[in-house]
Amino acid sequence: MRDFIRQQVLPHYGVDAEKVTISPLGNGHINQTYLVRxxxxxxxxxxxxxxxxxxxxxxxxxxxVVSQHLxxxxxxxxxxxxxxxxxxxxxxxxxxxLGDKGYWRAIGYLSNSHTIEVVSEPKHAxxxxxxxxxxAAALSSLNPNEVIDVIPDFLNxxxxxxxxxxxVEQDKCQRLEGCQQWVDLILTQQSLFDELAQIEKQxxxxxxxxxxxxxNMLFDKRDMSSMAIIDLDTCMKGYLMYDFGDMVRAFCSxxxxxxxxxxxxxxxxxxxxxxxxxxxNALEGIITxxxxxxxxxGIKVMALMLGCRFLTDHINxxxxxxxxxxxxxxxxxxxxxxxxxSLLAQEAILKPLFE
Length: 355
Known about the structure:
Residues 21-256 form the Aminoglycoside phosphotransferase domain. Pfam families: APH (PF01636). This protein has helices spanning 2-9, 56-75, 122-139, 157-170, 180-187, 190-200, 240-251, 269-282, 289-316, 328-345, 347-350, and strands at 21-24, 32-37, 42-48, 86-87, 96-97, 103-108, 113-114, 206-208, 217-220, 225-229, 236-238. By secondary structure, the chain is of the alpha+beta class. It has 2 domains: 2-109, Phosphorylase Kinase, domain 1, CATH 3.30.200.20; 122-354, Aminoglycoside 3'-phosphotransferase, Chain: A, domain 2, CATH 3.90.1200. Helix 3 (122-139) runs antiparallel to helix 7 (240-251), helix 3 runs parallel beside helix 8 (269-282) and helix 7 packs across helix 9. The longest helix has 28 residues, at 289-316. The N and C termini lie far apart (52 Å).
């Protein structure tokens, strides 16, 4: 792959391919990501997964719109984080379409940036939640209709439940028997489904990040302050409760997303409290009282929804998320659904944080 990148992709950016190093970057489930380094500069190169993003030009367009808006916010003194910009080719395009050889794009890389996979202390949760809240606040002045939904129904729980039900009915890989308990847990949450349907009708539509896991916030490794929000691929119209919920379900466990040590997978209340305070404070004057109350529902929904998606993919034969071992998606599903159960068990002490 490195030779292909040197010969077919880098020339579009005017890079001397013989004088760079190319190394894998990150651990995303969808796109293939590389760090390209030379003596003079460094940038991130991605091959977009066009099975997931069927119209990748919209993804590119959204990233340009969002990054340009954030840059204006910086210039007006309203946004204090760094902005990671798309990089244009020599032909002034923000993508390289090589047909069946891939759809590629380059974005800036921030030196001294650092990511973490697991939140180990409340301070990290507070810093990251403040950054994601600050990001949402900066985008609140951008018309949601300025971005295109690159993955329709991405955060549509009824749609995800229907996908699971279809997978269960077909059971084409004969995997249902090994995960029936998790299917049953998801399909018996009708009261949550009803609550969600009711509150969504009343919430304002905003531009959301839609993938607010901890490794999409860059820390400055020199002092572990917040540096930038990255991965704008799923910036679409949505509701704050989903961004917050996805963030907290990713922050709250002391274990990684695919850990099989389920006895250690818990929703830590001190982490949730730190994240909620920082996120809400960052959106002061913007977030409505109903949005604030919806955040607790968002945590539960996102843990359940991601567990549902992982479980559906496992039953279907691992056709969406990249896997690195047998039953990897089942492990991920069990992990997220264990967080969901932990949230339910602590509802009496956690829900008041949002009232």
